[in-house]
Design goal:
Elements: H1 3-11, E1 23-27, H2 42-46, E2 54-57, E3 60-63, H3 73-81, E4 87-91
Antiparallel strand pairs: 1-4, 2-3
The structure holds iron/sulfur cluster (2 copies).
Amino acid sequence: MNRRAFFSTIVGKGGRGAGGEGQVAVIDHRLCLAWDGGDCQLCFIQCPLQETAIQLEDFKPVINAIACDGCGLCRLACATVNDPGAIRMTTAVTSDQ
Ligand code: SF4
Ligand code: SF4
């Protein structure tokens, strides 16, 4: 089973990773393997909006909160390689808040 099939299994038919509408992913750099100099890009690889919602800068993941749809797949991916996970979901801030 490849990685994409594996994550499809754990997120279920809805295709969302325990995120939700109006949410956005946030990376805690202190907990991230890549930001600590390690070799991990799993959140980037699993993001359906790769290169839009999440990008790599010098091999380190950076979330674009404007483009992130809050699906949560990156958070689930991170939790498989990192404990505690470096990604959490938070409420997106909109311009009318
Ligand atoms: S929550 Fe979804 S869209 Fe946003 S960065 Fe993570 S995987 Fe990408
Ligand atoms: S999956 Fe987690 S540890 Fe790996 S690069 Fe992404 S945020 Fe960092």
